[in-house]
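thought: fold this chain, then report.
action: predict
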Amino acid sequence: MMTKNLCGLHKVGMILVWIGAFNWGLVGAFNFNLVDAILGSVPTVERIVYVLVGLSALAMLACRSCKACNR
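observation:
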């Protein structure tokens, strides 16, 4: 998917999805959770990041029906 054709919401979503994928790769390969390492002292913010990553994945699934992205 080309990022130049995406609306602003989907660009942010793609960045968050990449962050989530990178974090899960680190967890799987090295048992190291980067989000926890950075935000572990603030569990509420850490949880918000995880929710935003999940919502971003759903937004990316809906990207094909976004009128702003498919001009």
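thought: worth noting. The first helix runs from residue 8 to 30.
final: tokens above.
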